[in-house]
Task: structure prediction
Amino acid sequence: MSNPEDDAMEGLNYQERVGRNRVNSTNSNPNSTQLAVATSFGQVFEMVKRAAEQSLDMHRAGLTLVLGDIPNNVGAYHELGSNAIVMNRNIVKIVWRSTPAVDKRNAFTFMILLHEYLHTLGFTDEGQVAELGKKIADEFLGRDHLAGEMAVKPLDQFFPEISQFAMFRDKGQYETVERFDSSSTSYIR
Ligand SMILES: [Zn+2]
Result:
């Protein structure tokens, strides 16, 4: 394991890692196949919205994604009444560091965004959100998908490095992810 400092600022650019080192965690489900090669937070979020719509017949537009330097006991949060989902940038970096596998990173992103998206839809009970997250992931990605497992199990079971780097903070500013919730696909190249 490398020093957390030396590549801490490698950035959260999906594009640079696409195509490398995929793990064989995809099933034959077409959504699972699509998620495995998603190349941005926006692309993953489009899939989250489609999954929720299919299972719950609910949707919401106009959300903003912020990557923030927040304490590592919080993976992400949505403040009720706001239109922002804030993801813990440190944990994203730890997850990125712990696996170069794009499909595993995307399963993590899908699960985190789905969880917070359910909060934005008005679900406030954590147990209910976890169960709904599992149900929606099962229905959309197939029952054996990693994202469904991540919905109901502690993240450090999948990324043991999270506890190893528990104190890691990047001291970065909050940053807003551009074009996160636009239905335009023009940026997908
Ligand atoms: Zn929650």
Summary: The chain has one domain: 29-176. The chain is about 40% helix and 10% strand. The first strand starts at residue 64 and ends at 68. Helices lie at 30-36, 41-56, 89-98, 102-120, 126-141, 146-152, 161-164.
